[in-house]
Specification:
Leucine-rich repeat, LRR (right-handed beta-alpha superhelix); nine-stranded parallel β-sheet; 7 helices; 11 strands; about 20% strand
């Protein structure tokens, strides 16, 4: 994997093709955009890597061979919460071969709440860090492994809508950081989770404490959770 820090004065000539398979670009400044020299060079680097499959991108919009990717970790907004929504939409439409997606949404992003969801037909593993409203852009029919790092401003309704819209079958659910009992119980009782869940991982010190929190938030949860015969495990 190539971890990139590219100084402004560094613009070497690129060969026609390079054997790069994975790249991580962290905290790219504004002048990494494609319309700046450094951003243009980085974009050319990505297009010169026909074997590129995995990318972590934390920076402004850039032209890249998104169709090639199978694994993507993406922070689509800058540290001020600004996001180029049009670029985000266009990029989602090109992620047709993606199987693993990790999105980190920073606070204070403003966009049209009536977004038309984009179909990502092959995503089986989805990591969501931060606010949940970004899932309003998504439909994930093959989703099986859902990992959520909760944010206080997130909404359980966004996640429930994603599951309803996708009609997926969740077999693995991970709830990290400060998840809320309301979120936990509503997700565990959802039709796409309750009857198919095989693995449950939480950050609660004790699994009993976790289920007690769920029961306090939604009375009657525990008897329903006992119905499936599949084991629910915590690593």
């Amino acid at each position: 994997m190539l971890n990139c820090f590219i100084p402004h004065f560094f613009h070497p000539l690129l060969p026609p093709a390079i054997p790069l398979k994975s790249i991580s670009v962290i905290h790219a400044p504004e002048d990494y955009r494609t319309d700046y020299p450094t951003g243009l060079w980085l974009s050319q680097l990505l297009y010169a890597a026909p074997r590129l499959r995995c990318m972590h991108w934390d920076g402004p919009p850039i032209s890249a061979p998104w169709e090639q990717l199978t694994h993507l970790s993406w922070i689509p907004a800058d540290r001020y919460g600004r996001m180029d929504v049009q670029h985000f939409r266009e990029t989602l439409d090109r992620l047709q071969n993606l199987t693993i997606l990790r999105l980190h949404l920073r606070p204070c992003i403003h966009y049209n709440n009536q977004e038309i969801p984009h179909l990502l037909p092959r995503v089986a593993t989805f990591f969501l860090v931060g606010e949940t409203k970004i899932v309003r852009f998504l439909t994930l029919p093959e989703l099986k492994h859902l990992v959520i790092e909760w944010s206080p401003s997130s909404s359980p309704h966004d996640l429930e809508s994603l599951l309803e819209r996708s009609q997926c079958v969740i077999t693995c659910l991970e709830l990290q950081e400060d998840h809320f009992p309301k979120l936990s119980s509503s997700l565990l009782m959802h039709n796409t989770v309750r009857t198919s869940l095989i693995r449950l991982a939480t950050t609660s010190p004790e699994l009993n404490d976790f289920f007690e929190e769920c029961e306090r938030a939604s009375p009657g949860t525990l008897p329903l959770l006992a119905l499936p015969t599949r084991p629910m495990l915590q690593d």
